[in-house]
Write a structure and sequence with these properties.
By secondary structure, this protein is mainly β. The model has no long low-confidence stretch (mean pLDDT about 95). The chain folds into 2 domains: about 1-65, no CATH class; about 70-115, no CATH class. The protein has a 5-stranded mixed β-sheet with strand order 2-1-5-4-3, with no helix packed on it. The chain has a two-stranded antiparallel sheet with strand order 6-7. It starts with a strand and ends in a 20-residue tail after the last strand. It is elongated and about 90 Å long. The chain contains 1 helix and 7 strands; from the N terminus they run βαββββββ. It binds zinc ion. Zinc ion (ZN) binds near residues 86, 104 and 107.
Amino acid sequence: MEVRLYDSKLSMNNKCEEMELVKVLAAIEMYRDLDFGGFIIVDGKSYRHCMYNREKEILGVEPVELNEEGEEIDYSSDFTCPYCGAVNHDAWELSDEGETQCGSCSSEIEYERVITIEYNIKPKKCAPVTEC
Ligand SMILES: [Zn+2]
């Protein structure tokens, strides 16, 4: 299997073999040694799986800052994956709380939506003031 840096244009044009080579992993075979989805660490660097071309045996990957333990994220305005750091811009479509999978790395995530309330305040009429 070849690991190459994912390029959506080359992938769409079925030219995966032109993507930049990360490494040839001769001993590793997709669907025998691993399944598609998740991360791969090559020479100490972390990547997430983006695409796999079965015919050419090419795994397209993207470098990520992998946090295998995952970190709790509190009160974040972005729905950020605690494992790969990808932001889910469609998180508003999710229910108020539950579990979901990261669309980028397929890790499982638990979440709850926190709604904060803010006020806009305008002066209208001051209470009577007695000056002595
Ligand atoms: Zn992720």
